[in-house]
Write a structure and sequence with these properties.
single chain, mainly alpha, extended
Length: 54
């Protein structure tokens, strides 16, 4: 049973950008662990640079 609060299905533009990010990581030759750490760091940087809505 699918729960109603799951992640929404991404649209085509989101999938395209995500594919580009994955390709960049693959092309960089990083290990899976380093690529995962890189994505986590990118998420942190995004959170820090995106204005908070209050």
């Amino acid at each position: 049973m699918r729960l109603p609060y799951g992640m929404p299905t991404p649209d085509e533009a989101t999938k395209e950008i995500a594919s580009k990010i994955v390709q960049l990581l693959v092309d960089s030759g990083l290990t899976y662990k380093k690529a995962s750490e890189t994505l986590a760091t990118a998420q942190t940087l995004l959170d820090e640079t995106t204005p908070t809505v209050s």
